[in-house]
Write a structure and sequence with these properties.
Blueprint: H1 2-33, H2 38-47, H3 56-72, E1 74-77, H4 85-97, E2 112-116, E3 120-127, E4 133-140, E5 142-145, E6 149-153, H5 154-162, H6 170-180, H7 197-213, H8 232-245, H9 247-253, H10 255-265
Parallel strand pairs: 1-2, 2-6
Antiparallel strand pairs: 3-4, 5-6
Length: about 270
């Protein structure tokens, strides 16, 4: 009898695992079928001018994604900040821009978005080559954790959204990290559509990363922020900002890199 009960419980567990994705998608369909709130539409007009550049079909897709994202993710105000719909919709719009046309799962590892009024301080520890431990403080406008959290400065998030052509957007940067972290620690190699794509991805991004790190001098002009030379993960996040905000320059100056990102994001901002 105990063995029979265990078998039955195991079967129920398997059925639950198989049925959960179906139930989740049904719930999302119901959310996407609801009218997009008029107040949210005004928020997009006022805070995220980038949306107006999107073709009509992508605008509709983005709005549906925003509805699901806001319903599923928890927003937490930090340092006394009170979370509002303006914050939820503004952040969600930029996060969902990265998953348009992609058969993803709304950042499946992400549970919480922590929002500070402005830049925040983090305490970091590192060990140098001689084995000596050091403690330090760093002022950040955003951070992405593989444990399921994105931390953003509301002030910097607003600034990034308000100027959609300067190639700098902290929300795009941190949510690109989240895509990178879907398979583990961020390393600049997010989950690609096909295994065969990794060789080309590695070749193109590796060459561009090396070029940014080894250019003649820090004063030499570059389309990409110096922060992108930190490591491959930061490079991927930085070029994602530029891909969405300065596609014309990227396509002209770095055509192979633009092609790789267009293939990954399944979008062509040049056509908007």
């Amino acid at each position: 009898m105990p063995a029979l009960i265990i078998s039955a419980l195991a079967l129920l567990f398997v059925l639950w695992l198989l049925g959960e994705p179906y139930l989740t998608e049904r719930k999302r369909q119901r959310i996407r079928a609801q009218p997009f709130p008029a107040a949210w539409r005004e928020i997009l007009k006022r805070r995220v001018p980038y949306v107006r550049a999107l073709p009509a079909d992508l605008q509709l897709q983005l709005k549906r994604h925003i509805q699901v994202f806001v319903a599923e993710k928890t927003f937490i105000g930090c340092a006394g900040l009170e979370i509002t719909d303006e914050m939820r919709v503004t952040i969600a719009a930029q996060a969902c821009l990265l998953i348009l046309n992609r058969p993803g799962d709304y950042y499946p590892n992400l549970r919480q978005i922590l929002v500070y009024p402005g830049s925040f301080v983090v305490h970091q520890a590192h060990t140098d080559d001689s084995g000596v431990a050091h403690q330090g403080r760093q002022i950040l406008s955003g951070e992405s954790w593989s444990e399921g959290q994105v931390i953003l400065s509301w002030q910097d998030t607003l600034a990034g959204a308000a100027t959609p052509t300067d190639g700098q957007n902290v929300a795009i940067h941190e949510f690109a990290h989240q895509l990178d972290q879907e398979t583990g620690p961020a390393n600049g190699a997010p989950l690609l559509a096909r295994r065969a794509h990794y060789a080309r991805w590695s070749q193109v991004l590796g060459a561009e990363f090396d070029a940014l790190r080894t250019r003649a001098s820090p004063d030499e002009a570059s389309l990409f922020s110096d922060y992108g030379a930190t490591d491959p993960a930061e490079f991927f996040a930085v070029i994602s900002e530029v891909f969405f905000e300065q596609p014309q320059r990227m396509a002209e100056e770095h055509p192979a890199l633009y092609h790789e990102l267009a293939q990954f994001y399944r979008l062509d901002p040049l056509s908007w």
